[in-house]
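User: Continuing from earlier, I have the next pair ready.

Assistant: Great, send them over.

User: Here they are, in order.

Assistant: Folding the first of the pair now:
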Amino acid sequence: MKQTMEKLVGKELRLRMDQPEDLRIVAHALSSDVRLRILAMIGTTSMNVNEIARELGVPVSTTALNIQILERAGLVSCEMQPGARGAMKMCVRGIDRVHISLSPTPRGERRVWEFEMPVGCYALVGGVQPTCGMANRNRKMNADDDVRSFYQPNHFEADILWMRAGFVEYHFPAADVPLNQVDFLELSFEACSETLGHNNHWPSNIYVEINGQRLGVWRCEGDFGGRPGQLNPSWWDATNTQFGQLKTWRVDRRRTYLDGDALSCVNLDKIHLDGAQDCIRVRIGVQAEDGHVGGMNLFGDHFGDFPQGLILRAGYYTV
């Protein structure tokens, strides 16, 4: 099975001498004849591991190992897709050019910009489906399962919000960060699935986008309960969702990571940060196209286990 992947054409990976670990990983990935042949085969079409192994004339296990090395280097993008005999791993080259600068880049002072956004301070909302609602530290806000409540002006007060499907989008101010100097973005928030009451075995695929670019999908395994969240107010019923998991999404010049593990080939170039932007747009949601529409809860600093809203960090060096 092959399909054209034109959207991945024209991507470049830039490396410098002050990135020794990245250089080693990429150099290792390019040091094998088998891996170079794989890169040539999947430059403009996607192929599954069995197809690649058959064309190379090597065992599937050997092919899978080499694909993992290329994927770790950010040179190959892989995703699971349904097939006639179950799920299959589709692979395509994610990079067309590798540029290595052997001259050290002069740097100024290392700085990290940070901004915390309350969960209720979203700028856009859409596609919301019940079960849904929101609450602040004192009470539930508006009626349960009333989609219209997400458009009420008091949504800014929310310390927790939940929906079975849909999205919320936050606009982080960019005036205080030099976007064209950023070398990583990091987003952290507490979340879990959403169903009536709670269910620790209720999977949901929750996605994150930055500036309209999909970073990837996190499979949350449940709408967590069974014990009180450490921050929940006393009036919050024990049958409700109690806590989530703190997830950290990081994008650098090479790829995207979720909790330190490689997630996708999306890098900073694909997010299109530039000095002309007024804000950094962060969208979190659940949609049918990703499967496992198990909803989401987003926790603020008065619910769940972690005293925070959504925290966005950007690392850069002064010029």
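And the other member of the pair:
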Amino acid sequence: MDKRHLNKKEYDLIEKEVGYYAENGIINNAQREEIISLYSIGRDLNFVRILVTVGSILIGLGFLSFVASNWKRLDEFMKFAIMFGAFMASMGAAYKLEENHFRIGRSIIYISALVYGAGIFLVGQTFNLGGHFTSAFLMWGIGILPMAVLFSDKLLFIFSHILFIVYLNGLYGYYTFPYLMVLILPLLYYLDRYLGNSKIGTFFTNVLLINSIITMGYKFNFEGVYTGILVFAAGAAMYLFCKRDYNPGVFRVSGLITMGLSGIFLTYKEVWQELSYVGRPEELAIAIGIMLILAFLWLTSKGNITALVFVCLIILRYYFDALYDFMPKSLFFTGGGLILIGFGYYFERMRRRDAENGQNE
């Protein structure tokens, strides 16, 4: 059975609790050792790893700067050979050093990722491959996914998401459709679970999903209101249908943030004026705002602090929209400050109540 990797705080807690069970005769010492053996302390992001990561990035940038400065003097074969050779050499070195010199090996794999990405741009320029520049970010993101899986590196996994986000947001104004994202997104969710259900990995995959929906809506010339409704529905699905064994807290927070932001977007009458069959867009927008406030207040009553944040944002949105042009500015900002202080006080009360309930349990 594979060991579960925990951070030191989590590992110490389990060791303490299992020791407590053994002391009280619930389990024997052999069972205690067997349970503890199922866990190991993972490699946390510490100061040394930060140093070697930054160092690897600087080395990679230095190498790329040297190659770029001499790029025009090299023939095509030499250009390709240098980039391919540098990539294969760094990958081989990272693989060899991974077991006994983890941090150094991991820093070299980051150099490999940079060399791979630079190679895509430089080789494409050399052979005049054409295409839109965002396609290079797509290829870069796809290419480092096997590296993230091979070395079980969550940082590379998250970096691939950033590259995909750059790819998507670079497509506006061009005729390229991001059809590949239909295949990439399920793969990312699968790999996230394979890499240990990383919470930050799950969050970035959710962000990429929402970004893909928005980009697809733009590409298919959807009205903004339809895209907003689709995004809101995606957020609701994240919140309502999250699995218990797959970071449910991350899905709920992602869903709430998505519903909150898209819901605020749908409270503007200008959004509904795009639809010719909506006779009273202003009244509809206000009705949606009221329903949102009621829904988030209900979630707040269940102890959801994130929902309270969006109640505050929606109220401030209407406060600014309705009163900014009519109230004296001193009175307007004073009122806004009082609203924020009031919500901050209630927010703190909820946080303390949750902390006290956790201690009592």
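Worth noting for the second one:
Residues 1-42 form one domain. The longest helix spans residues 329-360.
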